[in-house]
Write a structure and sequence with these properties.
The protein is about 35% helix and about 20% strand. By secondary structure, the chain is an alpha/beta fold. The protein has a single domain, classed as 3-Layer(aba) Sandwich (Leucine Aminopeptidase, subunit E, domain 1), CATH 3.40.220. The protein has a 5-stranded mixed beta sheet. Helix 5 links the parallel strand 4 and strand 5. The termini are close together. The relative contact order is 0.21.
Length: about 150
């Protein structure tokens, strides 16, 4: 399984919250350290909306021109406290479907960009159930590549 932080071509999707907070130790924090403009664009673009209006949004940020994009999938409202369900499955499904549509419209017909999603996205810190989340992913993006 390819390490998600080592991907250099395609689309990396990950779940984010409506509060415009990048939790310490999260995949988002690691991606933002590697691609500094990612967090700035997340806060600027989604910041114009009220928090509840951010749920279900998919923000795609180009981080390596014409090669690598990161999709901020707004699938949770809160991020604290730990140990409770924060993943909003319906919002995650909407965001994933938007990502698939964006990819399909942005890619060449014969070679769509691969979409990489983290194993247990929305499940560890956000409290989701992997069986449910994996089903949502497979329904929205059947060819998504699950990675660590």
């Amino acid at each position: 399984m390819q390490a998600i932080l080592g991907i250099e071509e395609g689309i990396i999707g990950h779940q984010v919250n409506c509060q415009l907070v990048v939790p310490k130790g999260s995949l988002f924090e690691k991606l933002a350290q590697k691609y500094p403009h990612l967090e700035k664009e997340y806060k600027e673009v989604l910041g114009v909306l009220k928090p509840v209006k951010r749920l279900g949004k998919c923000q795609v940020v180009e981080v390596i021109p014409k090669r690598l994009f990161i999709a901020n999938l707004v699938g949770q409202y809160h991020f604290k406290p730990k140990g409770v369900l924060h993943t909003e499955y319906g919002a995650l499904a909407i965001a994933l479907n938007s990502l698939r549509r964006w990819r399909d419209l942005s890619s060449a017909e014969d070679s769509p960009l691969p979409i990489y999603l983290p194993y247990k996205m929305g499940c560890e810190e956000a409290g989701g159930n992997w069986a449910i989340t994996k089903g949502i992913i497979r329904d929205a993006i059947p060819d998504a590549i699950i990675t660590k």
